[in-house]
Write a structure and sequence with these properties.
alpha/beta; Aminopeptidase; Alpha-Beta Plaits; 2 domains; 6-stranded mixed β-sheet; about 35% helix; about 20% strand; globular
């Protein structure tokens, strides 16, 4: 990246902070369908202001007159290179929606304030994903300001449902496939480790999210009747204990049947850099990992092992003091992380069969969301270009076979047929999805420079 553009990045920190704070102050919580159109309009306005041609796209054009419309709109941005209009196109995928702010009483600053304290900006979305979005927009802005042009064609897709499973994204991609066509996708996030080295991820796990509800008596009942009336919470606990063992292994028949193993190139990447175990344990206040794994097995688990997690469990009386009842129902939400070749619907059917085989009655199982896993080959030229560009800014990078998290990467690859690479400014312990989420200003500026390098080398 030209030195003059690097100087612009360094000199425009206050403007970057101001624009990020503007977005953080909009409480665009998709789980509550809150302020989504308002935030989409703010993102589009920002893009147009810096020279990116932007429009707000709806699945149904009649929705644009409905402030609380569902599904939320996508913000689309595009700018063609004047000197290289027939060259390659980078698509930046991001999202403007955020997680709920709860629990509010654990925040040190108001969650939608964008409070600045030293090198940190606090607020919901500071890292995930408004901070990352700002770096993409600013990288384009600084090129336009310095040269009046961009070195390659640029497109943006900024959606408003990522935090609730990108429910309508596939329909958007299918409907506007020709508009969104590209040669490579820069994913919506990327981590930077404790040593300030960016972690470039080449994939994402999939997800199966379900809800189980066990039913008992037709109303909450006096607990003295527990000798003759079945408590639905015990049934649900029995079921949960049959699904996973204490080491995290999933006990459902054929659950691992379709799991794709790491190939030779992926194994090579996994062995290059060991996981910072002590730092991780210190950050999360734990003394050991599940199943007492260590070394390379920790990285293999994060990148390529399926999981079963209890996301929430509710039953009976949970307020202050005592209330002796048999609850009328017990409810649990489970998320299963999936790896390549595991299909969410097929895994859901295996779970259904498991419950049937146990013979537990009066349990409903609801499919909430499913997303397949995705990976980009380490040998892809786009991966190599991004890696070399990042090394010019940071000096070193870490390649990661896959993020442990989930996103709609598989949908993009299936429809747009383009490789996806995750690189970004999110410090690995930035408390995303938690109280006191933050982003680091120094990393925002470094990644903005890095994105400039990527744009310059995409030819």
């Amino acid at each position: 990246m030209a030195n003059s553009i690097e100087k612009i990045v360094d000199s425009e920190i206050n403007t970057m902070i101001f624009d990020l704070k503007t977005l953080i102050k909009i409480p665009s919580v998709s789980a509550k369908n809150q302020s989504l159109v308002e935030c989409a309009e703010a993102v589009s306005t920002l893009m147009n202001r810096v020279g990116i041609n932007s429009e707000i796209i709806y699945l149904d054009p009649t929705d644009k007159n409905i402030a609380s419309s569902l599904p939320p709109p996508i913000v689309y941005g595009e700018i063609k290179s004047q000197k290289n209009p027939n060259g390659k196109t980078i698509l930046f995928y991001n999202h403007y929606d955020v997680q709920p702010e709860d629990p509010i009483d654990q925040w040190n600053f108001p969650p939608f304030s964008g409070e600045v304290s030293g090198n940190y900006i606090y607020g919901r979305g500071a890292s995930d994903d408004k901070g990352e979005l700002i770096t993409r927009i600013k990288a384009v802005e600084y090129f336009l300001r310095e040269t009046g042009d961009v070195p390659c064609n640029i497109k943006f897709i900024v959606e408003g449902e990522e935090e609730i499973g990108s429910v309508h994204l596939e329909k958007y991609l299918i409907k506007y496939k020709e508009k969104f066509t590209c040669d490579g996708i820069i994913w919506e996030f990327g981590y930077v480790n404790e040593k300030n080295i960016p972690i470039i991820s080449l994939g994402m796990k999939g997800l199966l999210y379900v809800e189980l509800i066990a039913y008992g008596p037709n109303k909450d009942t006096h607990s003295s009747l527990a000798v003759i009336v079945e408590n639905p919470a015990w049934n649900l606990i029995k079921l949960l204990n049959s699904i996973r063992d204490e080491d995290g292994k999933i006990l459902i028949s054929d659950w691992y049947k379709d799991v794709r193993n790491f190939d030779r190139e992926e194994e090579k990447i996994l062995n290059l850099e060991l996981f910072e175990e002590d730092e991780f344990k210190k950050e999360y206040g734990i003394s050991k990992f599940l199943g007492n794994i260590s070394g390379i097995n920790v990285k293999k688990a994060l990148c390529g092992s399926p999981t079963c997690n209890i996301a929430g469990f509710v039953s009976g009386y949970t307020e202050q003091g005592a209330k002796t009842i048999i609850p009328s129902f017990a409810q649990v939400k489970l998320d299963f992380r999936l790896v390549p070749d595991m299909e969410p619907q097929k895994q859901f059917e295996r779970l259904q069969q498991h419950i049937k085989d146990l013979g537990i009655t009066n349990i409903n199982i609801n499919f909430i969301h499913g997303e397949a896993a995705a990976r980009t080959s380490p040998k892809d030229p786009f991966v190599q270009m991004v890696t070399e560009s990042a090394k010019r800014v940071f000096g070193d990078v870490i390649l990661n076979v896959s993020s442990a998290g989930t996103g709609p990467m598989h949908t993009f690859q299936k429809i747009l047929k383009a490789p996806s690479v995750s690189i970004g400014s999110t410090y690995v312990y930035s408390r995303i999805h938690s109280p006191n989420e933050f982003t680091r200003i120094d990393l925002l500026t470094s990644i903005t420079k890095c994105l400039g390098e990527i744009m310059e080398n995409c030819n």
